[in-house]
Amino acid sequence: AHIAYPSTPNFQNFKADYVHALDRRPEDEDAESSDVFASRKRPPTRATFVGTVKLHGTNATIVFNDGDKHHPQIQSRSWILTDTKKDNCGTYALLSKAPLASLVDQILAIHGDTTFREVFIAGEVAGKGVQKGVAITALERFFAIFNIRIDGRWVDMRQYKTCGLPDHRIYNVAQYKAFEVDIDFRQPTAEVHERMNQYTTEVYDKCPFSATFVDGRGQPISGRGEGIVWTMVRSPFMDEDEDREFDDTFLCNFKTKGEQFSATANAPKEPKVLNPVLADAVVQFVDYALAERRLEQGIEYLEGEQAREGKPIAGFNIKLTGAFMKWVTEDTIKEERNEMERLGVPEKDAK
């Protein structure tokens, strides 16, 4: 069966769910909740987040099960890849030729145990022909590891940054420039959010990943990056007690993107008195949530489904308008639910 990689929220949505989880009472744990922290112990009040470069490509994962290092399951975000006829941006063609067993050996050597039930390697396939508007499109297609899970526990990628097969165009984003912030979720976060945005702008203006490669003239490949993914790690800054804990079975992370790659059209505004006419609130939500990037993602979804079914790639086929609108609507509500609820827009009216 396909094993999905968890989605990565933006900071606003992550913070809203996180703060809610800080105040969750034991009797609330079984209550229905849409946030990602439901049914878990309360998270630390303070935590450290390491930011790695977010690469603009297509998600891919490699899954090894029951100690078998020689028969991996190669996946796109939505389906299992078994051949090049129903490939996703050349993911299967790239990964099926690599000696992936040696990659698992590298991981297990650091882990300190050669036995495993599951090794889950998450990354991004990117490079020529995958996306547009970023410096890495000048590179030959590659796979970059950004997270690893062993037997249900996500590892600290700083300890696994040497894992990769560069001779087979399999890299590791943890080897490249990284950032770090401490966040106290009981305090105002405007200052740390501004610092994260400054780091994100730095990546957006000049991708530190692509800059380590050279073109045919021997010059560094320069250009835009997409953004940063911030992942919680253990640190002295973190507060843990019997009521709060760092949970490595849960990938606690969020993303910040450069302006061109944001799926929202405007930064969230401070809460204000809403127009009593519901239509005005809906307009505010749509103006905020629907940027060109989200529409592009809808086309990419359609093209991915066509690839999965072995059909010719034609994401702009007018016959797919209904499927396109359905995906954009569902993705917008899923990703921007907190803003929708803040504006007081019922889901049925948002649709």
Give the SSE string: HEEEEHHEEEEEHEEHHHHH
Largest sheet: 7 strands, mixed
CATH topology description of the largest domain: D-amino Acid Aminotransferase, Chain A, domain 1
How many alpha or pi helices?
Answer: 9
Poorly predicted regions: 269-275
Question: How many individual domains?
Answer: 2
Number of strands: 11
Q: How much is the radius of gyration in Å?
A: 21 Å
Shape: globular
Structural class: alpha+beta
List the quaternary state of the chains: single chain
CATH class of the largest domain: Alpha Beta
CATH homologous superfamily placement of the largest domain: DNA ligase/mRNA capping enzyme
**Between the first and last Cα atoms, what is the distance in angstroms?**
31 Å
Give the structure's gist in a few sentences.
By secondary structure, the protein is of the alpha+beta class.
Descriptive overview:
Residues 48-231 form the RNA ligase domain. The chain is of the alpha+beta class. It folds into two domains: 11-261, D-amino Acid Aminotransferase, Chain A, domain 1 (2-Layer Sandwich), CATH 3.30.470; 278-350, no CATH class. It is built from nine helices and eleven strands. Strands 2, 3, 4, 5, 6, 7 and 8 form a seven-stranded mixed sheet that branches. The chain has a four-stranded antiparallel sheet with strand order 9-1-10-11. A hairpin with a 3-residue loop joins strand 3 and strand 4 (80-81). Helix 6 (292-308) packs across helix 7 (321-335). The longest helix has 17 residues, at 292-308. The chain is globular. The two termini are 31 Å apart. Residues 269-275 have low confidence and may be disordered.
